[in-house]
Write a structure and sequence with these properties.
This protein has 10 helices and 15 strands. By secondary structure, the chain is an alpha/beta fold. Strand 10 and strand 11 form a beta hairpin.
Length: 358
């Protein structure tokens, strides 16, 4: 999969234009605020139907415009081409692929596999546990739409269980807890297995770039048991606590992801640079994991992330990037982008929302 072109209208500060993207690498050069990240956001929206920067489409509309639209052409292989069009207006979004309307974004997810590397990814390392769990769920969802269904089902069950707890309907808990335990255990098992697989890449990559050995991820379930029957006993033993606080205090929505150096928590003693490197390597292994599972090369979107590494680590990091179908990378003026340029790399200078040949 590779983008061929994108056409934009009413999208943040970007000019209404069609941009040629039919290159293995596309470098975007420009000062901050000119539109580099906005283009990456548009590509991400074409891939997943949603932004990585905001949950509100109205924030994306160009000032004074009541809508935005993004149209993209992409190549499946040498002979098969597709188009995607997304239009958002008045809190309604319409997505079409090859002229046919898509009503569930789940259908879109496997269409154009994009991995975004951005500044906010640092929350996967030092942010709240919800961000760390989100990273695991996103990684699993990229290649497994059944996991999306499981997560949706669990979210509904959790919402029902919390409503029952608030209403003190103990008579309904036995029934809902069976669904809660069964669905929740599926999530816990898949996340734990994912952690094991990610560590095969993560520990080695972190060592090669930073020189620090034995950094790894650890998944800690709030359920100390590994069968539905044992979890049901646990839930019953702690039922009064849940009822008193009117919420579910255990389950995959409470699980933890930690970073260990040997057997010691790493984050409390790590420097900002070491923490930032964790987030970059997480995205890199996410892309590698996707390729291992699907044998499809992802598209990588790197948004000013190389700036946050010293020169030596930049070189090591780029050398360890996973295989990709296409690479988009943003640079500020004066950055040594020539070090990463290849024979067929396309360079755009970005100014006031316009893209000009380098």
């Amino acid at each position: 999969m590779a983008f061929i072109s994108v056409q934009l209208k009413g999208f943040r500060n970007l000019q209404e234009q069609k941009i040629d993207l039919a290159y293995p690498e596309v470098f975007l050069l420009g000062q901050n605020g000119q539109g580099k990240t906005n283009l990456l956001e548009a590509l991400y929206i074409l891939a997943y139907g949603t932004s990585f920067r905001t949950k509100s489409d109205s924030e994306i509309y160009t000032h004074g415009m009541p809508f935005f639209s993004v149209s993209g052409e992409y190549r499946e292989n040498e002979h098969i081409f597709h188009s995607i069009h997304i239009r958002s207006q008045s809190k309604k979004k319409e997505i079409t692929k090859n002229g046919k309307r898509i009503t569930d974004r789940k259908i879109l997810i496997n269409t154009i596999p994009c991995i975004i590397f951005c500044h906010d990814d640092i929350a996967f390392a030092n942010g709240e546990m919800s961000y760390r769990r989100f990273f695991l769920d996103q990684t699993l969802s990229l290649h497994n739409t059944e996991y999306i269904d499981t997560m949706r089902r669990f979210t509904k069950i959790l919402k029902m269980r919390n409503a029952i707890l608030k209403e003190h309907r103990q008579d309904l808990l036995d029934t809902i807890d069976i669904q809660f335990a069964e669905t929740g255990l599926q999530i816990v098992e898949q996340r734990a297995h994912l952690i094991d697989e990610l560590n095969t890449f993560f520990t080695e990559h972190y060592h090669k770039i930073s020189g620090i050995e034995n950094i790894h991820l650890e998944y800690k379930s709030s359920w100390p048991y590994h069968s539905v029957e044992e979890i049901l006993v646990y839930l019953k033993e702690h039922r009064l606590r849940d009822i008193e606080l009117k919420t579910s205090l255990s389950g995959p929505q409470r699980d933890k992801v930690q970073y260990q150096h040997d057997k010691t928590p790493f984050i409390p003693h790590a420097s900002t640079g070491q923490i930032r490197l964790i987030s970059l390597i997480l995205r890199s292994v996410q892309a590698q994991y996707y390729f291992e599972k699907t044998q499809r090369k992802p598209i990588l979107l790197l948004d000013d992330v190389l700036l946050e590494l010293d020169p030596k680590k930049r070189v090591r990091f780029t050398e360890l990037l996973p295989v990709y179908e296409q690479l988009f990378c943003t640079f500020l003026p004066g950055e040594p982008f020539e070090h990463y340029k290849k024979q067929h790399t396309k360079i755009y200078h970005v100014e006031n929302g316009g893209f000009y040949n380098g």
